[in-house]
Amino acid sequence: MKAEADKSVKSDKSVTGVRGFTRVRAAGASLLAMGLAAGLAGCAPSTSSGGGGQDDKSGTVRVWLFREVGNEPKEKVVDKVADRFEEQHDGVEVDVQYIPIDSRAEKIKGAFNDPASAPDVIEYGNTDTAGYVADGGLADISDEFGSWGAARALDPTAKKSVTVEGKQYGLPLFVGVRALYYRTDVFEELGLEPPRTLDELAATAKRIRAAHEDMYGIAVGGAYTYGAMPFIWAHGGELAREKGGSFTSALDAAPAKKGIRAYTSLFGDDNCPAGKCAKMGGNETVEVFAGGKAGMAIGGDFNRQAMENGKVEGEYGVVPLPGVEKGDIAPAFAGGNNIGVLKSTEHRTLAVRLAEQLAGKRTQEQLFEAMGFLPTFSDTRRQVAEREPFVKPFVRTLDAGTEFVPASPAWGTIDSSLILPEMFQRIVSGKDDVAGAAAAAAEKMDEAFAE
Amino acid sequence: MSAPASPPTSADAHAPVPGHRFRRRIRKPWRLAAECAAVLIALLVAFPLYWMVLSAFKPAGEIRSDRPVPWTLTPTLDSFRRVFAQQEFGRYFLNSLLVAGAVVLASALIAFLAATAVTRFRFRLRTTLLVLFLAAQMVPVEALTIPLFFLMRDVGALNSLLSLILPHLAFSLPFAIWMLRGFVKAVPEALEEQAFIDGASRTRFLWQILFPLVFPGLVATSVFSFISTWNDFLFAKSFIISATENSTLPMALLVFFDTETPDWGGVMAASTVMTLPVLVFFVCVHRRLVSGLGGAVK
Amino acid sequence: MSVATGGAKSRPRRTPGPADAGGPPRARPARPGRPTGGARRGGWTPWLYLAPALVVLAGLLVYPVYQLGLISVLDYTQAQVSGGEPTSFQGLGNYAELLGDPQFWNVLLATVVFAAACVLGTMTVGCALAVLLTRVRALPRLLLMLAALGAWATPAITGSTVWVFLFDPDFGPVNRVLGLGDFAWTYGRLSAFALVFFEVVWCSFPLVMVTTYAGIRAVPTEVVEAATLDGASVWRTWRSVLAPLLRPILIVVTIQSVIWDFKVFTQIYVMTGGGGIAKQNLVLNVYAYQKAFASSQYSLGSAIGVVMLLILLSVTLLYLKLLRRNGEEI
């Protein structure tokens, strides 16, 4: 039973000036048939539809960026870009606001809901791309993306992270990637070499644990999805397969299950006891390593400060996470943030141009200097790696090819309903075997994809 | 059980605290045991707080370390610096104070009137109303933010402090009304009769007699509305969208929560800074709570 | 005017009347301005007093709750809210989806048991400490009050984090002090619930303690004195004197605790990492968040909201009915 949607356009000048809101009214008849109160139709839940479509060439361009801990260096870089932009464009002002990362979901939804409060340009986490596109919040900027000179130097996964069904909805700003941290002192003491395959990794981990019973060989976490994914990808598995725009889970396929088995076999008294490790997420494994309780951990380039503050300061090294065969690098998850333009913007041209400058090579290079954010351009990245040896293993990981989460709005649901952590935790706590847990997780993923 | 026969040696016997007559009758060893228990429990309850403050002063690497000692040899103000270095921190603080203050005052007044109405008068729908008041709290707040969002937008309150004051007022009121009902009820009705016989008007009775009598209840409910408003994250991040200058303190705390790289020192320092004003507020009002009625109903 | 002295055992003087809201109010020839005592009909006066509250609550609570019911029968996600997609009528589809989910029933059961334990724990600790407060001198009283207030005032998200830190098997001091070695509290279902239970009681007993204490202060001293003179023990004084007098306050606090503990979110979410190992510690509100709100499925979320509303409403009504059967005036 579907109610006819009767759109009545009502212009609300006091709030939005020229924009109009569409109020969707459900036809009363079918509702009344369900025995609901009369007058319901008059109070249909509010909606707001985009606005936008305008393209003012002057005025204020509003930008939202994430507020990092220790945000000043970022502000300085951004201020320079904004000043330059204002110089280049007469009568244009750039207004930048910084929002806490933890409040981004509510703020950005709020911006979608109330175009009057919305900015023109936003920074957003790249795993949110498909969700925001489905919400109808991000503008399709495929044309501008195609003619953007810098786009050619972007690495393929970065492009993938702004792409939904072949269209681009943003520009990659920086990339975050994980590699293998290890304790140089412990390795030296036990005469170990950084592992070259995942099997060696497991064996090395057990040797460390055997020698130091108060240490985990490699700290792994049952809730550390992004640390576990490389194991699946390294064994040739996938999270999901796309066919004609629709996704199906591939977790219960044989290669993925091999990867899941490899990862979950690291939980146990001979490496990382399930009692303590089943619950851990990415940050906890990093904390355990930084606190000197682990021989190895999978950590990101963004975790460097935690290591420097921790007990392991000066006693750790980083290598790419190895793959199945010698010389292979396990494909890592390419996290990071993008810059997007809101559908509701009234300054489309200006907004896209500003986004291009914010995500441009020069800004990315400066952001690396200021904040340590890895550039999304392969060439820029190689240049900065020359100057800063710490990032080399991460750049090698990126160059070896990275993977991304399924570009489906369902990913948000899959992520927030913790389908993957639940699968890993069921296995490591002995509640289920790999086949059973993978099948159950695949079923839940498919349910989410179907919606 | 009777009053100690010997002249009281404890200072308490002379203390002009209302209700001392009640306490004097308790045998002293018992009181001592009770006081030891109270102090012990206080320490136990305060320990997590101590840990929070301690973590705020510890250097970053010590907060999660395998030597979890309840002290630090190298206290540092770095975490607090990161908290205060946030742009417009003072502004956030003031906004929080304004919102919480407005909610406390408004809810105390409105709830007092409403509580008097439902206690002192009998009318149709009285109990239904009371239960209805609670209904909105039975729903997950996230479910109400969307309707509230559009309501705020339509009345033009979005992005202003009013969009925080109004919902919080609405969420504090039911509890405050229910709570004050109990206190209003405890005031004997004979007192009211007496007041009317003495020729007091209803308004005069309400404000000059009843109001002071239910003050301890007002204090308790005010502490409640203050804390729940002060600590709110959800409305603060949902309704203050573009006007960051109208953000409140929890937003300054949220900055430090980042799933991949949380800054625990910053979290603890910001939380310490947030908790302090509540304690100050309480110390300011607690006299009213303690001295309360005691022997006032005489 | 020593009013309630005689009321130590019996309830304070008050005309016992049917409090049934549905029934006709007791007729009583009321002389305006000169009531003869007892609850009365006040004509327009009660409505005048109620007006501000009604305006605020109707606008900000009743309307949104009404919208909640409406949204729960529609197909309403972020795409409808802001993306310009048409809203369509879903009937009871969202409810069917929810009630047909076996996980929902498991979670509901866990929530009910956990909330009941929390309410019981909170009320017991809160009331016991309130009585304790009346028996100690000013300094210990202030200490305990400040500690409790601190626990109450700490943002839930921070409080939960600190508790997890304290009980951390690798980095926490508690296991060392208790000699528990590297016992992982969050691994077992029961121990994880127990840990959260302690935190919930820690942060919610202060409300009970402070309000109950305020209530005791409002009880005329003579009443308590009379009981103490009779030689009643602390427990008996509480049972037969204080508790009946404080019942209106205790009722409120109990109902509120039920509501809050049934809706517990932050503690479970932070302390068990979003619902525990393999979701063993899920409670209804976290379930709702993961199932609906995090991914902007407002219709399903609203349906869960409506179901929670109905459950809590019936619990509240049942509780009030029980009280009334025992002769308590609501």
UniProtKB/TrEMBL annotation, chain C:
The chain crosses the membrane at residues 47-66, 107-133, 142-166, 186-208, 245-262, 298-320. Pfam families: BPD_transp_1. GO terms for biological process: transmembrane transport. PROSITE patterns: ABC_TM1 (PS50928). It is found in: Cell membrane. Residues 16-25 have a biased composition (Low complexity). GO terms for cellular component: plasma membrane. Its main location: membrane. Belongs to the binding-protein-dependent transport system permease family. This is Sugar ABC transporter permease. It comes from Streptomyces reniochalinae.
